[in-house]
Amino acid sequence: MTESAQDGEYDAWLDSIESDNGYYLECSNGHGWLPPRRVCPRCHDQDLSEVDLPESGEIASHTTITVPTPQFEDDAPYVTAIADFGPVSVTGLVRDVDPDDVSIGDVVGLDVGERVTTGERAVVFRPR
Amino acid sequence: MSDPRIAGASVTHFGKHPERTGRDLFAEAGLEALSQAGIDPDDAEALYYGNFMGELAEHQGHQGPLMAEAIGLDVPATRVEAACASAGTAVREAVKTIRNGEAEVVVVGGAERMTNIGTAAATDALAIAADDLYEVRAGMTFPGAYALMARSYFDQYGGSHEDLAHIAVKNHEHALVNEHAQIQKEITVEDATEAPTIASPLGLYDSCPITDGAAAAVLTTESYAEERDLDAPVAITGTGQGGDNLALQDRPHLAQTPAADKAADEAYEDAGVGPDDVDFAEVHDCFTIAEVFAIESLGFYERGEGIAAARNGETTRDGDRPINLSGGLKAKGHPVGATGVAQLATVAWLLDGSHPRADAVPDSTVGVAHNAGGTVASTTVHIMEVRE
Ligand SMILES: [Zn+2]
Known about the structure:
In chain A, 9% of the residues lie in helices and 38% in strands. Chain A is mainly beta.
């Protein structure tokens, strides 16, 4: 693949996590979202501010994927999870844990890692 | 306002037809639907056509006019894309067009060619119904997304993989007499629970297959059908559509499908019926757990209770309210952009008595089709009733 353009606010958000300044966007009513967002889809508020992400989150659900897309061929089997970080939830790859030992409620931290197959950046969770 | 009549409908065989082009698949279904309707094709005034992944599978965009041409029509043709709900959404557009008095005859359909690119590329193509930045880049596949929803359901409400297996067993059994079905093979609960895992907790038998196929229907106004004495006893009396956040991570609940709640509420109100009036339904069981979400959102079961319906024999063909008498997506197959219209055709045939499983629902008068896109970020619900 040729060098491609970055994905604006998404890559900037990954940069923020890599430099330990991870944030989410919060509206005046406390609804949390990940960028890019210009408006809260729940309450229409456009006054979104950057708030520090909590140090740790809790796994809300997880799956061990054994039939991947080609972009994750060499990653499989791998665990994809959704983790709750206060008012915002994040989807990521669970690392440093045996897939059989991942449970709902596990406490994880947020990091940026690499996909095995492509070397591209990916959101990862590690146990805390 | 006239409720559209279904004057004709057709589906191709659903299965592996890797060498058949999308346009040929749709031509078969569309021409047969027009023939069944017994109308002058010149009377058709519009085509609404569902297709999801034509760019990826056939390097073919701009499919509206291509498909109109394939069935010999020179009409305004619009492709509708809402992932797996593309055809259901096309039906809704066709219903609105007829109700608005803009047309007396509309053709609606859909097609998908999938197996020609192989399983890996098809898995990749299906994944684009999810949020690319936040889900696909975190390894989310289509089965993976439903696996996250299934595990959350088990955690919140209980239930097990064995409960899901009963849904697969039921839908496989229903498909045994459906000659259009991709899979006509009886399976056991043990077959399903012991099958290889694809995305835990979901296994091979929790997932619909990858399918090539097409479906089409001809909708007319009531007056058009009556003036020409068409055999069109089934009317679409209610339509509803709902949406949700695209990414699972942005939803308040992982084990509920509010887009389908909204679509169902709107469709019931539109038709003036309620869940208790419904004799049977064709619902979007791309994965076994999706059937559970569907029958809860349609109001047949309280939250957390749909999981036991198949195991209890309530949704089997001899149950109180059979679900997916066609075999569902699970056994009939799921050519993504055709599914919503195949469901419409199935409901019409069950109501008019011409479906091979119509004996399971004799004297039925109200059927429902529930078509969901992605992880149910789009849903359409259509109510069909016998008129005359
Ligand atoms: Zn808000």
